[in-house]
Amino acid sequence: MTQLNAEQRLTLQNQLLDLVTRLRAEIAVALHSAGPAETLGLANHLQDIDDDAIASLETSLDVAAIERDMSELRAAELALERLSKSEYGVCVKCGAEIPFKRLQASPTASHCVACQTRDERLHGKAGGRSL
Ligand SMILES: [Zn+2]
To answer: Domain 6-123 adopts which CATH fold?
Structure first.
């Protein structure tokens, strides 16, 4: 069980529901405006014509952004599930309570700061893009 009171849980639940709605819409728009199969077909069609056109097609379909949205969506749905089972707000790794302030800033957080930091260091995600 967590330290969150009913009002805090409701606040976070609404935040998560908003997030899920927004992400679903974003993903739907992104996939609709340039489906992978459609883009591939166009790229094949244009192959002999213009390399620049193909390059711009590939950049217009921001696969990385869609994947990011999708993994965020999964995290939000998982958080809602945990919220309904009262497992929410507790670090899945060490069982420490995650402060309400941290959850409000990042409602999909499933790890406490200590575990998240360790995890990011382990998987090399802390530095963000390495360009
Ligand atoms: Zn932890």
So the answer is: Four Helix Bundle (Hemerythrin (Met), subunit A) (1.20.120)
